Amino acid sequence: MTPSESTSGQGLDFTSRPGEPRTPAPKWAYLSTGAGALVIVATYLAVILTQPATLGLELGPATLWVMLGYLAGAVLIAAGTLPLIPRSIFALMPVAIALNITVGQIVGTLTPVPLYLDSLGSVIIGVLAGPAAGALTGVLANVIWGVTINPTVIAFTAGAAFIGAAAGWAARLGAFRAAWTAILAGLIAGLPGGALGAPVAAFVFGGGLGVGTGGVVATLQAAGLEMLHATTVQSLVSDTADKAIIFLLAFLVLRSLPRRIVDRYPLASRSVRSRRPSPSRSAPVP
User: What is the rounded CA–CA span in Å between residue 58 and residue 18?
Assistant: First the structure.
């Protein structure tokens, strides 16, 4: 792999040949990435404002326009950041997407556990290759999941994109250098993640989805909370715990990877820098 292929997507910089300084990314890269983020936000707001009754029930017109909105945002983000994402990460993205779908479908919809665990793949990609790669993985995973198995998850794509990006931002700040900081970063990321999902669950789907989360919402409503309040409490509690677990799992995965693989990704390499042997620990000279 050449040095230009090991770029981490940590910022809008294009790498040049070895020994030469990085050159700033052109303006179109910033514009494309920003436009993609705006399209995703606009699609999310449109879902909240229009509250399409058939969204997620079938692959009809409502589900289709929401899916296309999120896909358009993903394409714009990809167009602006493809030169920044290591080429080798694209071989890992299908695995990460399959991990999101498989674990999320089993835990989120088939078990009584009020968690999701449907963004582990996005978080791992975000830690390895940066916020853009993590967000792109989250969008693609939810859209593929929605088209193939469960259309309801398409409505929650904005949250999936945010968590993938948040993992990349946390990695930049060194959150994955220790287990407790990874857990803390997950707890923090879970708050806006839950806030993004709660209105969709409440207004579009009438409460929590899945066996576990739906049961929590029903219990809170029986205790006297209105639907939106019950869904918000459930989302905030479930999401903070969910993301804390996922960020911890991503930390463990990162620590288990061989150093030669981690070194391909400068952002991930920074997170495990403490694994390098320190000169002060070398054997004493007799």
Answer: 51
